Amino acid sequence: MFVSVHVGTPVARMVVDTGGSDALDTGFAKANGVAVKFAGKRDRCRGESRSDGKAQARLTLDGVTTPLRTVDVMDLSPIATL
Fold it and tell me: Which of 18, 25, 34, 59 has its CA 20 to 30 A from that of 11?
């Protein structure tokens, strides 16, 4: 499921996964100065890298802001238009 959230000031479409972890697009992170930290071994699926790292972010949705939380940062372009 995608939701639109504020990450600081910019608005991002973010994947919310109730069975996994929330994910922010790599391109958005780079374009908006979100610090991405590569932490350990990358997840692999069918030989492809699924995670580019982790970021700390406060997410705002409908005026409610989360505490600082860790989110995955990965290329979401293959599913961004679904």
Answer: 18
Burial of 13-31, coded b for 16+ CB within 10 Å and e otherwise, reads ebbeeeeeebbbbbebbee
Does residue 19 belong to any structural domain of this protein? yes
26 CB-near residues (< 8 Å, 6+ apart)? 36, 52, 73, 74, 75, 76
The model's pLDDT over 12-58, given as tens digits with 9 standing for 90+, comes to 877 777 777 788 888 888 898 888 997 555 555 555 556 779 998 88
Residue 46 lies in a domain: yes
